[in-house]
Each structure stands twice: as structure tokens, then as C-alpha cells.
Amino acid sequence: MPERGIPEQYLTGYAQLLADVSATGRRLTRAELEARRVLGEQAADAGHGLRALVSAHLAATRAAWPDTPGSADSALGAMQQVVDAFAEGYERAQRLAVRQEEAARREFIDDLLYGRSDLGRLAERAERFGLRLSHAHAVAVAQGPAAYDEGSPVPRQVERAMISRFGDRSILLTTKAGRMLCVAPGDQDEVLTYFAKQAYAATDGGHVAIGRAQPGAGGVVQSYEEALNTLELAERLDLEDPLLRAANLLVYPVLTRDRQAMADLVVDALGPLTTARGGAQPLLDTLTAYFDCGCVATEAARRLSLSVRALTYRLERIHQLTGANPGDPAHRYMLQTAVIGARLLDWPARKL
């Protein structure tokens, strides 16, 4: 009799097979072993546990033993072959199920982040992975010095920390294009902040950007794209903060929304710097440092490894070439906006 809860079909013919092998001393044929593998696959697909299945085979062996003539060694050898084949089939089905699950998860993630599926169908599939897309969600994207996939040690380390802290909350952790992603309900900012902290520690640096919370299935795509754009801004502007929020950097997309207007401003305001000895870049770096430190000349000089006198000379030279005085509040906003535009448009390295 099989163990409680294990159908007899997975032991079909086992007692007879055991008796035959014990009597003749032969080994199981290839066809017999494959039949046991198939039964193992079927048991795995039905959701039965391997421990209970092995126990059922042992119990069936014990029940059949008194009626089994011949060599005990042959009977035990046959049992070993049967259980081994059965377990191989079981594991084969498990591996296939894992691959199918991974494929379904990857397909869902691709559809979720690119909005390529019907939103209603996408929302239904999302619940399988712990997301309720009727709520607002925000996306955090972590970029480190290397590219990561879901099997890499770094994402697994971050995942363990997140599960340990937040358990089974409605959180989706994944990777995309070498970056780590965390999708969380929009009202759970502590989840994204903790993800940023763990990702920064696990990657030994790097940047994490968090998009704004957006409603609906399409909101995940919008938040993801905001986070990606924020990472790109950080790279172009040499922003050093490890955690960047799209909500705090909205001024930059506004400034570059009209690219041609920004390019005209950069050329008109900063174009004369190209006539300076050494080109525009040293003077542009001077303006960048000067504005980044709040127009404090001593701090700007320190950042540039210059004397205050040398910095002052550069600022005066900029005034002479452009007609705009960086120290004059009336000129400062125009110059600072042009400097930001130059960094965003990669000028003067790229011709506008």
C-alpha cells in the first residue's frame, strides 16, 4: 500500500518488478527505467513531495518483501535503480518547471517595463508575481560598476536582505539590461529607500535612481523610464549623490525639453569661450565648480586645485569673452542655465 496521500499509480507494477528482478538477478532494462522516470515526472507535475514518494517506495518494498523469493541483494539493487530513476524524472520535471517559470517571469517583466501587453491581461498576470497594478507603483533602478543578471551573487544578496526585512510584501525584484530593479507600491517609500541602501552597499558604490509613483499598469513603465533618465542625468552632470530621486530633478527635463532652444542658449552664452587659449573646457569647468559650490570662490578654487587668484582671473576672463559676469546676480542665472545645458548636451565635445 502506498503512503497516505500518494496515489497507487506511481507504484504501478513496482511489486511485480521487484519480484522478477529478485528471482532472476537481472538488472532493470532501459525501457523499465524510463517508465519510472516518466512516473517521477508525473508525480512532480501533480505536486507531490519527493520525500513522501520515496517513503512510499520504501513502504511498498517492505510490503512486498515477504513474497519476494531469491536474492535480497538483487531486490535491494532493483529498489535502488527504481528510486534513482524515479527521482531523476522528478528532478527533470522540476527543472523544466523552473525554466518555464523563469521564462514566464522574464516575459512578464519585459511586458511590464515596456508596456507591450494588453493592460488588463498584464494586470491579471501581475498578481501571480505579487503586484496589484490597480495601485500606484514606483520603480528604483540600481546601476553598479558591473552588469548583473538575476543569478548573480549581488542581486541575490540584495534580494535576501529585502526578504529578510519586508517578507512577502508586494515587491518585485529583478534585473534588466545589467541593472537591478525594485518595483514597490507607491506608498511604501521605505522599501525603495532600503533597496537603494542595500544595492549601494552590495555594489560597493554606484547610483540608485527612484522614479515617481505612477498609477495603473502603465505607471510602472513611466516610473521605470524616469529612473533610467535620472541615471543618465547623473552621469552627464557628474552627480555624486548615491540616491537620486526623479522628483527632485524635474528641472533638468524641463530645461532640455526644447533641445534647439537650449543649444542656442549654450552657443550664444558660452560660444565665445572657444576663442580662449586652451579652448572652452577649462573655463567651462571653472563655471561648473563655481556654481556647484554656491559661488564661493575659495571652495571653487579648492575643487579645481587652483589659487583663489587664478580662479578670479578665470572668472574675469569669462566676463571679458562672454560679456556676462558670473558674480553678478543679473547674469548668473543665464550663465548657470547655459552651463547645465552644456553638460547635458556634451558641449563643447559635441558640436551643436
Describe this structure in words.
There is one protein chain. The chain is of the alpha+beta class. Helix content is 61%, strand content 7%. It has 14 helices and 5 strands. A 5-stranded mixed sheet has the order 2-3-1-4-5, sandwiched between helices. A hairpin with a 2-residue loop joins strand 2 (172-176) and strand 3 (179-185). Helix 3 (50-64) runs antiparallel to helix 4 (72-114) and helix 11 crosses helix 14 (329-344). The chain is elongated. The model has no long low-confidence stretch (mean pLDDT 85).
Strand content: 5-15%
Structural class: alpha+beta
The DSSP helix count reads 14
Tell me the distance between the termini: 83 Å
Main sheet specs: 5 strands, mixed
Q: Short description, anyone?
A:
The chain contains 14 helices and 5 strands. The chain has helices spanning 14-24, 30-45, 50-64, 72-114, 119-128, 153-166, 189-202, 217-237, 251-256, 259-270, 281-292, 297-304, 308-322, 329-344, and strands spanning 137-143, 172-176, 179-185, 207-210, 243-245.
